[in-house]
Amino acid sequence: MTDTAVPTTQIRARLAGYESRFSALFEEYFHTLGTDLEVPSFSRFTPECLNLLRDLSLRGGKRMRVALVYEAAGLVTDEPVGAADVAALSVELLQTHGLIHDDIIDDSPTRRNGPSTYHAYQYKFPDHPQAAIGLAILAGDLALALSLRILLESTAPTAIRQAMVEVQTRAASDTFVGQILDLERDFSPATDEEALHCVADYKTARYSVLAPIQLGLLAAGEQPAVIEEELRRYARLVGISGQMRDDYLDLFGDAHVMGKPLGADIRGGRRNYTVHAILAAAKDAEKTVVESALGDQNCTEETIAAVREIAERRGVPAKMRSDMQRYAELASAEAADWRPRWRREAVAFFEYLPQWAMERTR
Q1: Does residue 322 belong to any structural domain of this protein?
Q2: Is residue 315 part of a domain?
Q3: Helix axis angle, 129-152 to 45-58, nearest 10°
Q4: What's the burial of 277, exposed, middle or buried (CB within 10 Å: 0-12/13-18/19+)?
Q5: Looking at residue 257, which CATH number applies to its domain?
Q6: pLDDT tens per residue across span 34-57
Q7: Which of 8, 52, 251, 303 is exposed most, by the fewest CB atoms within 10 A?
Q8: Which of 83, 40, 34 is nearest to 54 (CA)?
Q9: Is 168 in contact with 94 (CB distance < 8 Å)?
């Protein structure tokens, strides 16, 4: 791991500060949206939709994408950057869109310790399933439109507004491609590791890491296109390491800490990093156990435990931790190369981020 110029405790304090400050900013945005959005007075469904968007959005967790926006602006200057607030709101609205559509695709009943938007509509309209899915899709679409609208309506100079919209539009389209690739992957038993890296890059890294950094730099008056290749390499490495961690925790994490049963990806038939590693290491009879569990929504906890035991017997958890660490260190080294270009204190955050992702337990 590359040494950072700022103590870890200071970086963690900055993260907590971003989370607290942004929560108030997001609350104010939704309060204003209720009066700014043009809605016919007779409509009951539109205000309900906005309430669901607000509820899901404000249940956000660590706000790491928000931190990336502000820290990217901090690479350029230690002064407050007003356009960074608008960029952060756009990033989180796009995230809300993604969560709503993810939960439709996965038919997930919960999200962020509350009901998913899709299941909230199912509960409201139990006798109208098509209306429920239609309203959920439209809620997600509205969040996407709002994420672009807030950029277009900002007070930033025209050139910066346009560049930000281009970043978010590209991030959204890349994510849609990633979602398609993610579903396609589960139909391909012979998926190789490079294909998994590609899915992680498109589905996660480009909108969760690359776009927030680009937006923060633009907000501070920097032109990210000058070092786009370096930023893309960093984002891809962070995305791969982070996705490996997500996949690892789904089978080897602590169910109590995570707040959900282990093995959801197995039951969902997801041929992710963990499944790929298990099948690569397992013997013939063991592969049969794993393959039979994949996609079985009624798969018992005992079967999940058996798959986990096979993985542990073949050294899969240790190998995955080693791989995650390697990609995290490569990402940190990539960020360290930014020191001559930008403020060292801010660069330290980007060196630290991959290791933080390795340490998280949910």
Answers
A1: yes
A2: yes
A3: 70
A4: buried
A5: 1.10.600.10
A6: 788 888 999 999 999 999 999 999
A7: 8
A8: 34
A9: yes
